[in-house]
Please model this.
Amino acid sequence: MPLRQILILNNKEITSGYFLMKLSSPRIAQNTLPGQFLHIKCSTNNNLLLRRPLSIHRVINKDTIEILYKVVGKGTLCLSKKKKGEKIDCIGPLGNGFQLPKTDNQKHKTEIILVAGGIGIAPLIFLSQELAKSRIVAFLGAKTKDEILCAKELKNMNAEIHVSTEDGSLGYKGLVSNLLKNKLLTLNSKLSIIYACGPKGMLKEIALLSKEHQIPCQVSFEQFMGCGIGICNACVIRTKQGYKRVCKDGPVFDAEEIDWEKI
Ligand SMILES: Cc1cc2nc3c(=O)[nH]c(=O)nc-3n(C[C@H](O)[C@H](O)[C@H](O)COP(=O)(O)OP(=O)(O)OC[C@H]3O[C@@H](n4cnc5c(N)ncnc54)[C@H](O)[C@@H]3O)c2cc1C
Model:
């Protein structure tokens, strides 16, 4: 299991409660797939034994990666206090990652539909980097406008961006799944593939829409996790083939595979 002390190059708050951490790791930068994650020991304190899973947000160059995280509890709070020059203990990259569309012999460009619920945007930027030659249509949803992240990065990749906020402070007022529902009518679904990351309820709605419109869809779960390497089974979810481990069999699953009734 690859386990390393990784040097922090930067750790800055980009908007209230959200941090971008730059890490120096040629090994991870050169051996990771979009959708994979790091299992991070956020503190050496004994009452914080469990690692916390965070997605690889961006590969900046062959030596450097970034993670983007929201402070929600003890672990992420400890992480937010880390300073440039300190090291953190990471296992990874872990998990399966997104499957990229096959581009060989394709006459028409695949239309990539990204759907991010809040911090679910984190792994989708690395994915967009890898799919930069495709047409990207991104749906970004959050509670309020300050939590709409990475719109600038997506714009720089020429993505078409649609925004929803639950309080109506930016873009469509309501859930991102409803926004997608409205827009799907105008997209060329035959050439589309959906990649979604966010809370389970959102993923379920997106999966239903993808089925209705017959669009292939991959979903990435932000599940509670224990070991991160497939041993403890703390992160299992119900699939049509029985329980699967989000850390080892996922975090990315084909939406068709999930037993959404029991999620
Ligand atoms: C594969 C994977 C990739 C992830 N990538 C990212 C990422 O890139 N950026 C990011 O900010 N977060 C990501 N997460 C979620 C992140 O792991 C949790 O937010 C983090 O573990 C919380 O740790 P904590 O100690 O700060 O909070 P805790 O003290 O453990 O929990 C604080 C509060 O947050 C809730 N919470 C904690 N973990 C989760 C969770 N996984 N889902 C829903 N609610 C939760 C708890 O119910 C509690 O209310 C990812 C999760 C997975 C499984």
In short: The domain at 111-262 is CATH 3.40.50.80 (Rossmann fold). The helical segments are 26-30, 74-80, 121-130, 151-156, 176-184, 200-212. The first strand starts at residue 3 and ends at 15. The pocket of flavin-adenine dinucleotide is lined by residues 37, 52-55, 67-70, 72-76, 95, 119, 122, 222-225, 246, 251 (CB under 6 Å).
